[in-house]
# Entry
Amino acid sequence: MAMTRGIDETHDAALTSWLPGANAPGHDFPIQNLPFGIFRRRGSGEPPHAGVAIGDRVLDIAACRTAGLFTGLASEAAAVCGDASLNRLAALGPAHAGALRGQISALLRAGDTRIAGLPDWETRVLPRISECELFLPMETGDYTDFYASIHHATNVGRLFRPEQPLLPNYKHVPIGYHGRASSLILDGTPVRRPMGQTQASPDGLQPPSFGPCKALDYEVEAGLIIGTGNPLGTRIPVAAAEDHLFGMCLLNDWSARDLQKWEYQPLGPFLAKSFATTLSPWVITWEALAPYRAAAAAHPSGDPAPLAYLDQGSASGRAAINLVCELHLLTPAMRQQSLAPARLSRAHARDLYWTPAQLLAHHASNGCNLRPGDILGTGTISGPDAENRGCLLELTQGGKDAVVLPAGETRRYLQDGDEVILSGHCEAPGFVRIGFGECRGTVLPAVG
Amino acid sequence: MAMTRGIDETHDAALTSWLPGANAPGHDFPIQNLPFGIFRRRGSGEPPHAGVAIGDRVLDIAACRTAGLFTGLASEAAAVCGDASLNRLAALGPAHAGALRGQISALLRAGDTRIAGLPDWETRVLPRISECELFLPMETGDYTDFYASIHHATNVGRLFRPEQPLLPNYKHVPIGYHGRASSLILDGTPVRRPMGQTQASPDGLQPPSFGPCKALDYEVEAGLIIGTGNPLGTRIPVAAAEDHLFGMCLLNDWSARDLQKWEYQPLGPFLAKSFATTLSPWVITWEALAPYRAAAAAHPSGDPAPLAYLDQGSASGRAAINLVCELHLLTPAMRQQSLAPARLSRAHARDLYWTPAQLLAHHASNGCNLRPGDILGTGTISGPDAENRGCLLELTQGGKDAVVLPAGETRRYLQDGDEVILSGHCEAPGFVRIGFGECRGTVLPAVG
# Structure
């Protein structure tokens, strides 16, 4: 039985907050968003715990609970918000997360005086994000990366297998692989250029060499975050799949293309991926995303119908997420010349061939157990047009056509000192824009 | 700097225990073994905690510590043995694990009276394994599966890619992929036959179908268990790699061959593997394995020399583990006729193309962080002869040649009710045989 997690008063575009600064237009975190994260006041020595971003501040959920501001399911949900991860909150399921969201919305709404009546509320209950440290929001047992963009799969396939860019399974199976959970890192963490084995000769018959990666790339992705899991040996029907989702974040699946090319047959990418995967700090809840749903991507006529276990029927009409992701690059030269970051990619999650519910139902279709905090990456989000290409591999045709940057520089792949900035937002007619925050990382030189 | 974890008095073949039953010949757990595990007395309600197998009993480390039987590093090590996993013990490193092993060996040695002088020692300090529940020994953040047997890679490659069984990267790169940590299960846990997508037509152009796996297989493997990890962005020199190993266990990487064949391109195996991976309950410590080392497998002349980061130099002479794995099958008909399990595979870990240190150094060569409790599967262990084939895919040539069983039955792949029993042991001239225990699982029917 699917839960209803539809549009309600928390999404009303007319809502404003009594909090100064929270109503600035174009801000990522208006009162309609309310994403969860893990934070602590810098220098406080307090243990990391859960908060909700609002404007340029973070609401301390535990402080509100101590003040008796929550009731019912919201109070039960707030009781696990002293944890150093959102796992237990996510595991409580949509009813709890939704109730907490609703009561936080009410607390922050224009006219409400409960928080501003608390002593030291500006520092104790609603500190500025800039005065806080942020942490990975989830403790992730398993990270899976899918390959849900047919545009990406086709563009990459053309480079690796010109004779057969899209393999016969693609339109039937949501292709994915197990990723590395240990190397998940938070927005802002520098990324060390990996060393690795590469093979310069196209036929693979010359001796390979070991050295710094020469084809370091980013991948524009979104991450689906599991809320309630399923026991090993059970499946999740596609119609109930979204009940198991807690929310979404942005994800940059850093990739060493030269390592990948040499190592990936026959078992898939391994060390080309496991040196870093950057996550954004704020979990945009599934509740917050309700107004920003889109129809599943139209499959070209002649494409196969999904098998029954992946068929969403009439739910297809709002099965996708209308998330727009943008990737900007800031090089050391641009920084020196005070140039703004240059946009390299702009891609739409609604263009993905497979929907979040399909990815999740497929993942559990063999009885695989998903656990709270698990992350399912969409895979690189690309689209039909050149500006929609979500990684340099696609943008530069495998390093052949350099991208020209504002300072007159060019890039085939990332260079040391380059900062990669992934951002994302949702928009819908009649609703405000909500943002996903950022997912940044600067490339550090390899250590030989 | 590599630690010395060599042969010492704990390995002496002349050692015997004062404990009745521990000296029975052919037993897996003589006093020279002393593997760690997690247990609790059945029905006691006590939290799971660490023990050491000796004969048919398990030594309660916390009980010995309470009695003041440990000193120095061993006492520090015993202080974390109340945990429900061995992770903190493993993370302390070889000096601590070695000291604890040494003092436990002394406590159990013939003539020592300290334990037998404690009240209720038979139930409180040394309960029978048969009266205990066992648990997964490690909390595993990431499980990696390698492909270290060139015999397996060649046999399987011949079936999937007859024109090029062994890919050009194989003799340079220790091929591996990220596995699924959530579906790691303990010896004895039944395995539900997975459902999944399969494609019956060889050209992949007919519509696939979704249903129960028809080609369920086992894989004979060993698991390397990480003790001390490495920070993200750092590497582990091959000469120091074994310092990071806590021990080994047996591992059955259950595989759905029909799902695998259809899904594995281009990102590798996914749902074909993530429904179950069975581990044996006892961690054979790296210290215990010292007498059972073997030379790294001889690479045929003409094979490339390993790149410097994988070159073990003179250490190659004892870089492998002389572990023999056996796989037995017991079908419902055999059980009914009281027939003994039939041996299908017998394989030697010393035949692997890559050594444990090479697998570990390669894994961290890109800066990937390994964490205490992580497991590195060797991949299916096969050898040059027919009896060495470590999975049914190889034994039956992809399901073509059925295996004939004692009751006159045949098997191409596993059937419901079949019990798969993986065991392993080490032997060396002048030393006693030590066993790895068992890794069992019975196939349950799929749930449609």
User: Anything to note?
Assistant: Residues 256 and 272 of chain A are 5 Å apart (CA to CA). The mean pLDDT of chain A is 96.
